[in-house]
Write a structure and sequence with these properties.
two-stranded antiparallel sheet, Rossmann fold, 46% helix, alpha/beta
């Protein structure tokens, strides 16, 4: 597992409380993960998540994934846990305005020690967000604690690809993205197994490189003025972000980073 000791939760909170988080949402939509609706539907279908179930979203951000699940999968209720007050408050406002606050609640807290009851959730959910958590063993243990026996842990995440990152590449990538640690497919397989789960799927979605190309094209061809507004109308700041995105695209094309999809059942 790759690590960058200079990045911590406070750095992640700063991203999603400010301009950088707003820029990600501009480019990727409220579902701030690669693949958006299609990725969410694919994960939910593969994991068998559907009507009447109760779920927990760890690192829920503003709750777009939870709104997807209650609307399009018929999930009865969702509880989201996130450590950034700004996005939790935004999520509560959005759920209320969309008439979903009776089925979705937010907890401002540590996803590695959520305080939620053990063994009550039918499933635990995550989308491209566990990469922001420093202590991934504790995170996976918490997911396994929350879910009932026979329940499912289903998530996507940004991971190290099979080609591997050099130390310099990892430092640049993790520093730009504010990821304190970066797991691989095998890392997550091992953590899930050690936490009492049967791994049903651990795979590269193949989405990373083409979607980064899409985001770059959108900013270049349509969203330039919007991105500049978010970044204080600073063309150099936008150029710097675009340069790092091109770097990410190259890593993905070389098989050094990827979006992983994971589905496991609690024994």
């Amino acid at each position: 597992m790759k690590k960058l000791s200079s990045v911590h939760l406070a750095d992640v909170n700063a991203v999603y409380s400010g301009a950088e988080g707003d820029l990600w949402e501009l480019i990727m939509g409220q579902q701030i993960h690669i693949g958006g609706f299609k990725s969410s539907m694919d994960l939910a279908e593969r994991a068998g998540i559907g009507a009447g179930q109760r779920g927990v979203d760890l690192c829920c951000c503003s709750g777009a994934g939870m709104r997807f699940l209650v609307r399009y999968r018929g999930v009865a209720s969702m509880t989201g846990v996130d450590a950034t007050a700004h996005v939790v408050e935004r999520g509560r406002e959005r759920c209320k305005s969309e008439g979903l606050d009776d089925r979705i609640r937010f907890v401002l807290g540590d996803v590695t020690a959520s305080g939620l009851p053990a063994g009550e959730a039918d499933f635990v959910w995550g989308e491209d967000a566990w990469c922001y958590v420093e202590d991934k063993p504790r995170l996976v243990e918490e997911a396994a604690r929350i879910v009932r026996s026979g329940g499912v842990i289903a998530f996507t995440d940004w991971i190290e690809g099979p080609a591997g990152l050099s130390e310099d590449e990892a430092a640049r990538f993790l520093g730009f993205m504010k990821f304190p640690t970066l797991a691989s497919l095998d890392d997550y397989r091992s953590l899930l197994g050690k936490s009492g789960c049967e791994v049903l799927e651990a795979a590269d979605t193949g989405r990373f490189a083409p979607y980064v190309a899409l985001y770059l094209q959108m900013v270049d061809m349509q969203l330039t003025s919007d991105a500049l507004r978010i970044l204080g109308n600073d063309p150099k700041a936008l150029e710097a972000v675009a340069g790092e995105m091109v770097f990410l695209q190259g890593l993905a094309q070389a098989g050094k980073i990827a979006q992983g999809r994971f589905i496991a059942r609690r024994r």
